[in-house]
UniProtKB/TrEMBL annotation:
Protein name: ATPase inhibitor, mitochondrial
A single Gene Ontology CC term: mitochondrion
InterPro entries listed in its UniProt record: ATPase_inhibitor_mt (IPR007648)
Intracellular or extracellular location(s): Mitochondrion
Annotated organism of origin: Echeneis naucrates
Transferase listed as a keyword: no
A GO molecular-function descriptor: ATPase inhibitor activity
Transmembrane segments: none
Family: Belongs to the ATPase inhibitor family.
Biased composition (Gly residues): 27-40
Cleavable signal peptide: none
Length: 107
């Protein structure tokens, strides 16, 4: 994705990611440089902190997957609705063309 961005935007995004990752420190290793500790278990560090960090990451990954699935479902429903609308409008067009043919035939 980054190769499609302009170089200035790409460098800005990569510098922001580096800065945010430096503040975080290593997940589960206690409080980071940013000030927020993330709770007493994560502040303590050690195996429990690593486990808590892993569970938190897994939770957000699952939540993101659920949101993406809901978004896909919504888009599929929109596509189906628009296809039905196209079919309805095509029937209307055909009906009007039939009326025009009938009027031309009557002349």
């Amino acid at each position: 994705m980054a190769r499609f961005l302009r170089p200035t935007i790409r460098s800005f995004i990569s510098s922001q990611l580096r800065m945010s990752s430096e503040q975080l420190g290593e997940l589960g290793k206690g409080a980071g440089k940013g000030g927020g500790g993330g709770g007493s278990v994560r502040q303590a560090g050690g195996a429990m902190g690593k486990r808590e960090a892993a569970e938190e990451e897994l939770y957000f990954k699952r939540k993101e997957q659920e949101q993406l699935a809901a978004l896909r479902q919504h888009h599929n429903e929109e596509i189906d609705h628009h296809k039905k609308e196209i079919e309805r409008l095509q029937r209307e067009i055909d009906r009007h063309k039939g009326k025009i043919r009938k009027l031309n035939h009557d002349d």
